[in-house]
Amino acid sequence: MSETLIQVKNLCKLYGLNRSEASAMMRAGSDKNTVYQKTGVTAALWDINLEVRRGEIYVLIGLSGSGKSTLLRCFNRLNRPTSGEVIFEEKALAEMNKQELLEFRRNKISMVFQSFGLMSHRDVLGNVAYGLEVKGISRAEREEKAMKMIEMVGLSGWEHKSCAQLSGGMRQRVGIARALANDAEVLLMDEPFSALDPLVRREMQFELLSLQRKLKKTIIFVTHDIDEAFKLGDTVSIMRDGRIVQTGTPEEMSTNPADDYVREFIGSADKSKVLTVRNIMMTPSCVMRAHDGIDHALREMRANALSSIYVVNDEMQFEGILTVAQAIRAHREQLKTSEVMEREIQTTHDDVLVADIMPVAAETPFPIAVVDSDNRLMGIVTKSSVLTALM
Q1: Rounded distance, CA 46 to CA 89, Å?
Q2: C-alpha closest to that of 5 among 220, 206, 152, 200
Q3: Whole-angstrom Cα distance, residue 135 to residue 147?
Q4: The Cα angle at residue 100 between residues 97 and 106, in degrees rounded to 5
Q5: pLDDT digits over 77-113, tens only?
Q6: Is 142 in a helix, a strand, or coil?
Q7: Which of 193, 272, 348, 378 has the maximum number of C-beta atoms within 10 A of its C-beta?
Q8: Chosen CATH of 278-390 out of 3.10.580.10, 3.40.50.12780, 3.10.20.30, 3.30.360.10
């Protein structure tokens, strides 16, 4: 089974009559506004290429008018592309006949809307079970499946309540439960949390991550919030004027923005929740082996103008830190390094988020040692390197 679930190749969507001239201008490098002023054609999408892997959250982000929602609706062919193609499991959507497309929409892909899209005349259970009802599944079976989804999104006990009695966050949970009840492989989510207050929004983001990790659904998620994109996205595409300007992981974008637009766009993002320790760690300049003499340790600290030295064994496994005060004591009392050094030293791994080590970095008297799975010393993280990463 291929890891790639969906491919988009050279996708364009133009609105207007004079599309041939507009296409020629876009190919020649004209921008969206110039094309509209000259031809009256809106280039909603131009030359979109991307791949969505099974089980990932793929986020489309951009300002209003960037084309992200238009692109989202091409994945279930609610929008028909002017040119290019969307391929699902090696089958182009354009090649599907009416029945195949209907089955695709019923069984393979579901959509969660920003406005919840719930039916006021149905209770929670009725809304969640609606897609199964359309499929012709018996009432007993569809309600059993719907109840499992209601329980999964934390709405047990509310199944017979009117949707009007629910808060915004609860209504959004109903929308997600309805999409999950169809057991579709792909969920399309068009700014589903943008109408929620910040506290509920954070709660729903956490719930979505929990559900996705449990159910392994493939999710294509549209947002205009860079923190939300970086929190949820395994892969993120930033869109501008109908084009994708950069695709990558949140970490890749933060460390290597493609251009000034991307750099400015992600400038307000909370970097501590994107960057990992590997992005900020540095090589320790003062290291000794455990069997090295105390005089050697003192010479190393003096040469590097430092008051401590990292201690490792012959396999570079981290053992602790020797301070200058401890070294002087050992020299005076003829003690070994192992008898005086600090062993209870905070360590971390290079894939840990900076946000997760900030409280420790603020309290520890020494830089944090970065070790691998075999406890080998890889680098250190200082207070200044944490602060620099956030600037």
Answers
A1: 23
A2: 220
A3: 17
A4: 140
A5: 999 999 999 999 989 999 999 999 998 998 899 888 7
A6: helix
A7: 193
A8: 3.10.580.10
